[in-house]
Write a structure and sequence with these properties.
By secondary structure, this protein is of the alpha+beta class. 31% of the residues lie in helices and 27% in strands. Helix 1 (13-24) packs parallel to helix 7 and helix 8 (317-342) packs across helix 9 (346-361). The radius of gyration is 23 Å and the shape is globular.
Length: 488
């Protein structure tokens, strides 16, 4: 009777976000973490606009914003400027925030919601049965649950134990990473310089520490196990950028070899994987933590529906069909960044830079690039070809009675947005699903009714006002989410 509904393995941002989603939906959730203590090392630092919107939809964005530094312009290539302030979002920025700070906020929420977090728990075995999964831990103890989700990183034990393949390649260039203090502050929030000898980046954490990153072609084959002294990082910055900003203290450093890999599937029976366990890629573009958090928000409400016996047939399969596609797109994006910045041919890099500048000149291609980078352009394919054009796309933060739509989503439930003055949809569904009455300005193309999933994407929409009540009632009765779609 007291069996855990879902065990999440891995207490990084993905695992913590998933645990919060499950607990918010009333799921008995336990979080197992192999590390006995929380590390103070920040690996990820970029929080993109779509991730901030999802955190806002759970009341967490305002907790994170004071701990970050907003970046509203970047140059993905020489002469190519990207201004995030042109985006229609509450968060037109990349927020530079230490991963450790994001984890603290998510862990505090998880504990507030009653999630049991067990540290020093290493998974050594998985046995799947008809109605449950049994984990074996180091020391011989076992942990049963209805479902298990591996959020345990690129070297995922969960993924390995259930036999999910992880295909791809390693990049050749070793990356130098260090957290440093400076005597001179860079004039740019996101300082980047490139030369034929490599690329350097300096990123502020907002607390006096900076993340120094270098792709140094003179040092790219030094063994990963060799310590990285501050003198080596200083020398790389001096050669490539002409300055080291007076580096005077280093609290952490490492050599890192990035990979480009994706799991062949995201599910094996009652076991799922998410975050770095499902996909790893070049750090250029800052996609890793963002993609993982978005995996978690997609999977959370679906697992909760399954646990509560409310999931339509095939709902859990939509996690893989929707997110595997996104993971593949992220790998293409970051691989493109990697070739643009770190390619060995100066001629090819120059041609690629011209291509980027050209694409940014036109509205449609500029939005396509920005949409992928920020996550705002992610949309999921509808199973039904006759579905409304809004189906599967991110819903904007509409103005509704009682507050913004993303404020109304904070209970983790579906919302039916009625944009008509007749309030026909609200009358039809009664108490079956919460209704948000749109009170914003008249907007061309806005559907008469929009069924919004807990992760902020459109499950169903309609322009037909003549029979809106019956349509809305039927959409809610179907159980809401789309049928599973092919990943191809």
């Amino acid at each position: 009777m007291n069996q855990t509904d879902v065990i999440v393995v891995g207490a990084g941002p993905t695992g913590l976000m998933l645990a919060c989603e499950l607990a918010l939906a009333g799921v008995r959730c336990k979080l197992l973490e192999r590390r006995a203590e929380q590390p103070n090392i920040t690996r990820a630092f970029a929080v993109h606009a779509r991730t901030l919107e999802l955190l806002d939809a759970r009341g967490l964005a305002d907790d994170l914003l004071p701990h970050g530094v907003p970046v509203q312009e970047i140059q993905p290539a020489p002469g190519a400027n990207v201004d995030f302030r042109t985006l229609e979002t509450r968060y037109p920025m990349i927020l530079i925030a230490p991963q450790s700070g994001t984890e603290r906020i998510l862990e505090a929420r998880a504990r507030e919601l009653g999630v049991e977090i067990v540290r020093g728990a290493e998974v050594t075995g998985i046995r799947q049965e008809a109605q449950r999964v049994v984990l074996t831990l180091a020391g011989g103890s076992t942990e049963p649950a209805s479902y298990v989700v591996g959020c345990d990183g690129a070297h995922s034990k969960v993924r390995s134990l259930v036999g999910i393949g992880f295909e791809g390649k390693q990049y050749e260039t070793h990356i130098l990473l260090a957290d440093v203090r400076l005597t001179e502050t860079p004039g740019e929030t996101l300082f980047t310089r490139a030369s034929n000898e490599g690329v350097v980046i300096m990123i502020p954490f907002g607390d006096g520490w900076f993340r120094a990153i270098a792709w140094d072609r003179l040092r790219e084959q030094i063994p990963l196990s060799e310590p990285l002294p501050m003198e080596e990082m200083r020398e790389a910055f001096l050669r490539i950028a002409g300055t080291d900003f007076g580096m005077l203290e280093q609290r952490w450093s490492t050599r890192f070899l990035s990979e480009r890999k994706q799991a062949e599937r995201y599910r094996a029976g009652r076991v799922f994987i998410a975050g770095d366990a499902a996909h790893v890629h070049s750090p250029l573009g800052g996609q890793g933590m963002n993609t993982g958090i978005q995996d978690a928000v997609n999977l959370g409400w679906k697992l909760a529906a399954a646990v509560h016996g409310q999931a339509p047939a095939g709902l859990l399969d939509t996690y893989e069909s929707e997110r595997h596609r996104v993971g593949a797109q992220v790998l293409l994006l970051t691989d493109g960044f990697n070739r643009l910045v770190l390619g060995r041919s100066p001629i090819r890099r120059a041609l690629q830079a011209v291509a980027v500048r050209t694409l940014l000149r036109f509205r449609r291609t500029r939005w396509a690039m920005l949409g992928r980078l920020t996550g705002l352009g992610i949309r999921y394919p509808a199973a039904n070809r006759r579905a409304h054009a809004w189906t599967g796309q991110r819903v904007p933060d509409l103005t509704c009675e009682g507050g913004r739509l993303y404020e109304l989503l904070r209970d983790g439930r579906h919302r039916l947005v009625d944009t008509t003055a007749s309030r026909a949809a609200a009358t039809a569904v009664g108490d079956t699903v919460q209704v948000a009455q749109y009170v914003g300005p008249a907007t061309p193309g806005l559907p008469a009714a929009i069924l919004v999933r807990p992760d902020g994407y459109v499950a169903w929409a309609s322009d037909d006002r003549t029979d809106l009540a019956a349509q809305a009632k039927a959409a809610v009765a179907r159980g809401l989410p789309a049928e599973p779609v092919s990943r191809a």
